[in-house]
């Protein structure tokens, strides 16, 4: 396990610091991208924060998805305009 992870391109945090940061971001409903080497506890820490906030943890691996899985399915509204039905995970 490495001793740091990167949150966005701007900050490098130790795992112990990441929990507090993620907690604040979850409470503020702000998106976040956490990157780091395999095995540096990114998923485990996100699961921990979700459990403590009594929120659902959803592990989405973009590499395994088709673009329509994230964008949704197109449909036409009453005016003939294309709309997108959001995906349900």
Describe the 3D structure:
The chain is of the alpha+beta class. The chain folds into two domains: 58 residues, no CATH class; 29 residues, no CATH class. It is elongated, with a radius of gyration of 17 Å. The model has no long low-confidence stretch (mean pLDDT 84).
Short description:
The chain has three helices and five strands; from the N terminus they run ββαβααββ. α1 (15-27) packs across α2 (42-52).
Keywords:
89 residues, 2 domains, two-stranded antiparallel ribbon, alpha+beta, 33% helix, three-stranded antiparallel sheet
Largest sheet: 3 strands, antiparallel
Proportion of residues in β-strands = 15-25%
What do the pLDDT scores average to?
Answer: 84
Tell me the count of domains.
Answer: 2
Using the alpha-carbon principal axes, give the shape: elongated
Number of strands: 5
Instruction: Strand order, main sheet: write it out.
Output: 2-1-3
Low-confidence stretches: none
Structural class: alpha+beta
Number of helices: 3
Radius of gyration: 17 Å
Q: Roughly how many Å apart are the termini?
A: 30 Å
Series of H and E elements: EEHEHHEE
Query: Percentage of helical residues?
Result: 25-40%
């Amino acid at each position: 396990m490495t001793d740091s992870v990167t949150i966005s391109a701007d900050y490098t945090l130790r795992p112990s610091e990441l929990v507090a940061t993620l907690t604040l971001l979850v409470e503020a409903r702000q998106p976040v991208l956490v990157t780091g080497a395999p095995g540096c506890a990114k998923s485990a820490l996100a699961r921990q924060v979700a459990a403590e906030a009594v929120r659902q943890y959803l592990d989405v691996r973009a590499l395994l998805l088709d673009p329509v899985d994230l964008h949704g399915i197109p449909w036409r509204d009453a005016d003939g305009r294309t709309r997108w039905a959001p995906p349900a995970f």
